[in-house]
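Interim report to the steering committee. The following record documents the input for Lantibiotic ABC transporter (327 residues).
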Amino acid sequence: MTIVKDSEARGTQHCETTALGVLLRHEGLDLSEPMLFGLGSGLSFVYWDGKGMAFPFLGGRVKPFELTRNLAARLGLTLTTKETTSPRKAWENAAAPIDAGRPVGLQLDSYHLDYFRSKVHFGGHVVAMYGYDEHDVHLVDTDQQGGAVRTSRAALAKARAERGPMTARHRSFTITLPAHPLPWQEQIIPAIRHCADAFLAAPIANLGHRGIEKAGEQVPEWLPRADDPQQDLPQAALLMEKGGTGGALFRALYRDFLDECTRLIDDDDLRTGHRLYAEAATLWTDVSTLIAKAGESSDTGYLDQAGAILHDLSRIEKEAMQALRRL
């Protein structure tokens, strides 16, 4: 068995920040999960109802791996990423850092992992790998999935080879800190501004605050849109709250990031952004509860209420990001 020494298997709430935490702590940089999420400008919104999709998807963060790239660039980290179409080479790319005494991040489809409780295809899942033997690999996943877990090497190979939305070609990555790391505190305001600019200037109407407005228009029509409302709507609500989002479709994570920032930076606009995102987090949880109730009861009134709250959320988040952009 090969295990990375001094690799702290601390699971948290969101998969990508969980993996980043493992890799960065091994390098000597220990930041909270909300701070990693915020420094990576991770918050976003997308209303996705693509052709051939069984049911619409509400996403609350940037694309998979974009958070990692943002964080590495902002903190001056060396991000080494490898991709391949060869399963043999993919295993070598994952095992080599372990053999050298370093954990490695992997992007894969969670559907195939032995320990995963919810068998739904998601190709943007990220884990940290810190050991292996002839049969199994040792991973760190979110607290919800068990934190320090194992899966078979065969299952891992299937997860990494899967193709479809948000998948990567056997992507693996490592992170190295520079000899003289940039002070991360100085990158807080640039990270917030970057996130706010992207949110307010989204190029299409299903992204950012305009996307939330669109969701407010579309969600009241979800009952006839669903093939199986009693399954589809509660599943959508569950993903918003429990699908590795940290609650409230990532708004709770961003609220906590802004709260941590207010303890470091004295700024009225920052406090306004934090107050508004605290309000938004509560309302997003209300939306998910109403969507679940609509599926369970087939009562469109719950979806009408959810739609009305989403219109409010579009305004609240726009106001929050306008304040944060002024930092």
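The chain has a mean pLDDT of 96. The committee is asked to note this result when reviewing the revised timeline.
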